[in-house]
Amino acid sequence: MLTSRHEKFLRELFPGDGSLFTPEEKLIFGTDASRLSGQPWAVVRPENREQIVELLRWAEAEKVPLFTRGRATNVVGGAVPDKGGVVVSMLRMNRVRDISAVDFVAVVEPGVINGDFQKELKKRKLFYPPDPASAAFSTLGGNVAMGAGGMRAVKYGVTRDYVLGVEAVLPGGRVMRFGGRCHKNVAGLDLARLFVGSEGSLGVMTELTLKLLPLPEATASLLAGFGTLDAALDAARAVFGCGTLPTAMEFMAGLVLEAIAGEGEAPWPQGTQAALLLRIDGSESAVAEDLRRLEAVFKRYDPTCLLTGRGQDEEPLWELRKLINPASFRIAPNKISDDVTVPRGKVGEAVKRFQALGRERNLKMLLFGHLGDGNLHVNIMHDASNPDELARARQTKEDVLRITIELGGTLSGEHGVGLTKLPYLHWQIGEPERALMRDVKKVFDPSGILNPGKGY
């Protein structure tokens, strides 16, 4: 625990409500969207890099663990102070320092909200593609720390593809700047990208330089339902075969569709076993041609429904996708969620094996995800108050992860490792490789004070 001397230092460095010490003030800072929790010794809210430099100098000297935090939207326990220490909330470092339509670059502080940033860019006809499901309230710093993905990844890639530069403070107060404003840079090791997905274990990021793109002139969306899972997967393969690269390609299996229908009127008829939801973008003429081509592709697979929308008319289609989380609790009161990714060609086998697990264990399996890049979200629905059912759900989670590895997949496509995936990471990554990762961490964080026990 902190000594009175420690507390005095923190109060002076972070005056007023910049530092929190009472149990009531600290409570919310001990948890994240994983619903795991810990007990922080204190919470600090830096407003500038200079405060962070002094904090990291002090923490290294006193060997005090630090847990950096944004909006804590991650679902793997990545922001939980499970070992006790000081939580560093970055929400007050939320300035957009520069947006350049000449360099196609933005310089931001880590506490900027992704959705707010995208709205500001849209006014200037600029575009930042990474769009995690939490974009409306997650921070850019958190997105970088956890290596966030999103629905537009199939065409535009993920967060790591847009990080050009990172300014970070390392233990001891060392300020480091990696990368810069250039879109191409192969001078030395790419240490900026090393911070993407590092889960706050290497340094405290104070500034990010992000790549921007021109805002597409037009967008359109298409929702197609199918009578069988195989028809949906065949149609998805045909999309790539027709020469059109969707911005997003979302997949929803039958039970997901039933749950959404329970929330209100759904456009697909009863008996629909799978649905695809696509978005395309580009020039007006290109979008019109791609939409015509995709409609023709889907009609070859006897869709149970086929709806399209352009511009504002797209939003009702995507609202259906957003209903998945609240609708899931119509199936059961609790769920164990996993984010796994398999090679594109193995998606069908993965879905069928996961569904078979659910039937074998008498559990409802909600399956959906980003089909374009093989990223599946597996929700194991159960009643946690029933000990037997909870045990079956936990065993099913392990079996889902084992099947994923067997298929050449990864235990985490976009959510990170944190605490919840760490016990299984050795199934995918060998001890020599993990030891090397820990050696890299020691170079940045010799005393292991930054988010200890997470990620690797």
Automatic annotation (TrEMBL):
SUPFAM superfamilies: FAD-binding/transporter-associated domain-like (SSF56176), FAD-linked oxidases, C-terminal domain (SSF55103). Residues 36-215 form the FAD-binding PCMH-type domain. The keyword Nucleotide-binding does not apply. Transmembrane segments: none annotated. GO terms for molecular function: FAD binding; oxidoreductase activity. Keywords: FAD, Flavoprotein, Oxidoreductase. Its cofactor is FAD. Belongs to the FAD-binding oxidoreductase/transferase type 4 family. This is FAD/FMN-dependent dehydrogenase.
